[in-house]
Amino acid sequence: MYSLLLVLIYIAFISQGLPDSLLGSGWPVMHAELGVPVSYMGIVTMVISGCTIISSLFSAKLSRKPGTRWVTVISVFLTAGALLGFSFANEFWQLIVLAIPYGLGAGAIDAVLNNFVALNYKSKHMSWLHCFWGVGTIASPFVMSYALSSSTWNMGFRIIGFVQLGIGVLLLITLPVWKATKKTELTAAAPEQTQKPLGPLKVLRIKGVPFLLLGFFAYCAAEATTMQWASTYFVSVKGLSEDLAAQLASLFYIGITAGRLLSGFVSDKLGDRKMIIVGTCILLCGVVLLALPIAGYGAAVAAFVVIGVGCAPIYPCIIHSTPANFGAENSGSIIGIQMASAYLGSTFMPPLFGLIGGKTGFSFMPYYLLAFFLLMIVMTEITFRKTQKPLSLPENSKPGGKE
């Protein structure tokens, strides 16, 4: 039953990743059919992100009552309903309305599942959890491509909507499986039902939390910038066609997904802190490679793959280290605010790069990424030192207990 629960959580995170790349894949056709400028996708994503931030901030209260399992099920049904609604939309304003339940569902499931896995499972499972998110993001563009070639963009949302609906039904009928969790050192100290949700101001007063939030903000800003602007970099800096650039940009997704699969095999031995340092060293090599004035686009292709592989362990390890660093009784509230800081970084910093790149040229990209990645590793290291976690200890292999 314990292993079955883990499988269900993996499936839930595939459902989290499925919609994330769907809108971007279909937007070149969608905006034309809806009669709005291409820039209007930013309005939809801003509404989604805003609602995601709101639900993330309230996730600690939600995970206490009605509980993680019910929040997960309700969130999947919310996103499924929103996606099915997208599939019937024929006016832009309808997308704005439907973005609200989509964002609320996405933020809640993201925060509560990350906290649940951090408390109940080892570091490797957190890496593999986010690997399955990557599987969802990779699959969606292929679904949209099939829909565009055989029908309309609406069909792409309908297919993913029904898949989400099926996952929601599966999670609903397997609710009893969630009782199969084992007591660990962390959950025994602070069971989910006894964790008291803290407001943002109280969380910020906890020693080390402001540094953690700033580091997580910086990481997500750099990751989202890489995801959203890689294709434009290949077109503007390397002079490639839009079709080829779009294909090459997907290599970052492949790199980060493969990297999370591989990092799961070593994260328990090294511990979260060392994994973050190793990942940062790898991605910095990719950033330097991207900055080198090398003719052709081969080096840039390799650079984006290396950056993806380096990014792979950072997000899951920062999340997984939170209960060990700040206590299980605080982890739900802190992770909820971490998710909010993540969405702030991924929402506002890529557009800022777009403005800078439009004026200075998109060859500025590696320097922009370097600034955020350096800020991330400095703030993360300060966090570990503030919480007095010695580097020599694989401190984060403990939370999951026995498998």
Low-pLDDT segments: 185-190
How big is the Rg?
A: 20 Å
Give the overall silhouette: globular
- Please tally the helical runs, counting DSSP H or I stretches of 4 or more residues: 17
Number of strands: 0
List keywords for this structure.
single chain; about 400 residues; mainly alpha; Growth Hormone, Chain: A; 17 helices
Characterise the protein shown here.
By secondary structure, the protein is mainly α. The protein folds into two domains: 2-182, MFS general substrate transporter like domains (Growth Hormone, Chain: A), CATH 1.20.1250; 200-389, Up-down Bundle (Growth Hormone, Chain: A). The chain is 79% helix and 0% strand. It has 17 helices and no strands.
Quick summary of this structure?
By secondary structure, the protein is mainly alpha-helical.
Helix and strand layout, with pairings?
Elements: H1 2-17, H2 22-34, H3 41-57, H4 59-88, H5 92-120, H6 123-150, H7 153-173, H8 185-189, H9 200-204, H10 209-236, H11 242-263, H12 267-270, H13 272-291, H14 298-311, H15 314-326, H16 328-360, H17 365-386
Helix pairs in contact: 1-6, 1-7, 2-6, 3-5, 3-16, 4-5, 4-7, 4-16, 5-15, 5-16, 6-7, 6-11, 6-15, 10-11, 10-14, 10-15, 10-16, 10-17, 11-14, 13-14, 13-15, 13-17, 15-16
